[in-house]
Amino acid sequence: MPDVHVHLTIENGVAILTLDNPPLNVVTLELTRQLGDRLDALAIDDTVRAVVVTGAGSRAFCAGSDISEFHEMMEPGQVVEKKLRRQNEIFQFLAHFPKPTVAALGGLTLGGGLEIACCCDLLIAEEHVSLALPEIKLGVFPSSGGTFRTTRRIGIGRAKRMMFFGDPIDAPTALDWGLVDAVVPRGTALAEARRWAGILTRRPAFALELCKSVINAAGDLDEDQLVQKSLTASDRVFSSPECREGVRAFFAKTTPDFRIQEHS
């Protein structure tokens, strides 16, 4: 039996996925496979309404790919079939996961680790954390979404600066650039991510899913297509039990209970 490299706990509607491959939680073929399995299970678990992704220990969220695996992938076509095709499928599934996701960055977030983090909806970094896409120093470049997901967050110029030079940026700079959404004191990222996720469990799940789908399409579709996508999603959400509960609670001056609402 392989070691467990992605631990899963669930509490009060929040799933915690912990990358655990000491000492730096690097991405291996097995870690990627386990991440995919956990996400598949969580996607159909109706008790889970938000997901937090974090790294075990205090040294790293994830310090990138396990370079020792590269030796068997350096002939033409091998890296795609042995690593990147499936890795991209799993990372893309995380990026378009139907439930809100929060990354808690408590240590080094490098290469593939930053690619995983950028698949999440919201990123929280501790104040001492360094973030980088250093692949260029190995003669390669980010190959599992870093090129475009990072660019969508921080813009073309800053993305090229990160990827061309491969040098780390600190957490305050990442916040200023929009790469992360909050910077918190050392040792508190996971607690803050759980707090954010807890708030999201009380939001309407169907509306969150549809809102996320439109936001995620913003960089892929033209404005007319986005308007149509938004209208279609709006029609679905306005006819949902969640909308009826929200309107009921508004007029009753009570807090809506979206947890018990189901959608078709």
Automatic annotation (TrEMBL):
Query: What catalytic activity is recorded?
Result: a 4-saturated-(3S)-3-hydroxyacyl-CoA = a (3E)-enoyl-CoA + H2O; a (3S)-3-hydroxyacyl-CoA = a (2E)-enoyl-CoA + H2O
- What terms describe the molecular function in GO for this protein? 3-hydroxyacyl-CoA dehydratase activity
Alphabetical UniProt keywords: Lyase
Pfam families named among the record's database cross-references: ECH_1
The record's listing under Gene3D superfamilies reads: 2-enoyl-CoA Hydratase, Chain A, domain 1 (3.90.226.10)
Q: Which GO terms describe its biological process?
A: fatty acid beta-oxidation
Q: What's this protein's function?
A: Could possibly oxidize fatty acids using specific components.
- Please report which protein family the annotation says this sequence is part of: Belongs to the enoyl-CoA hydratase/isomerase family.
Q: Write down what this protein is called.
A: Probable enoyl-CoA hydratase EchA17
